[in-house]
Amino acid sequence: MTQKILIVTGDAAESLEVLYPYQRLREEGYEVHIAAPTRKTLRFVVHDFEPGYDTYTEKPGYTWPADLAFSEVDPGDYVALVIPGGRAPEYLRNDPELRKILKSFFDTDKPVAQICHGPLLTAAVDALRGRHVTAYPALELDMQAAGATFQDAEAVVDGTLVSSRAWPDHSRWMREFLTVLRTKAPVT
């Protein structure tokens, strides 16, 4: 039986932060499902860095169908979880179905990869307290308020939690996550 990994996201997620792990984990042999608030075509965005801007810019990105709604997810069917960034985590953290999913992964110590603004979701279920993490640098104070030790690094591994700052750090993020997966949930 193929090992399954869940990606949780919504509209305005960063295109690269959804699609890079989706493709890379499939390439590794995992079955990957994308869950969102409802089954629908999601609209992702592209965040980029341009001279003269104090922060990143946002442009329309790819569209992609959600395989299932949060209410349809059985966390027991999945060996790991991926939490992309973008603007989606800002509103998704208020979704009670998603919070149940997140809590289940942390309660069972399954591998979790989070990137950019994704840690806003794990903070919402109090899963960062006492951990070492990274996130988009503007979230340093949010991570500290959630009880985490923030590190400005390409990737930070704390047990089964692998975090990263943003899409420029993808290769290191996925390399570290795959190291955890090969130990905790290898492809069979």
Automatic annotation (TrEMBL):
Residues 4-178 form the DJ-1/PfpI domain. InterPro entries: C56_PfpI-like, Class_I_gatase-like, DJ-1/PfpI. Belongs to the peptidase C56 family. This is DJ-1/PfpI family protein. It comes from Streptomyces macrolidinus.
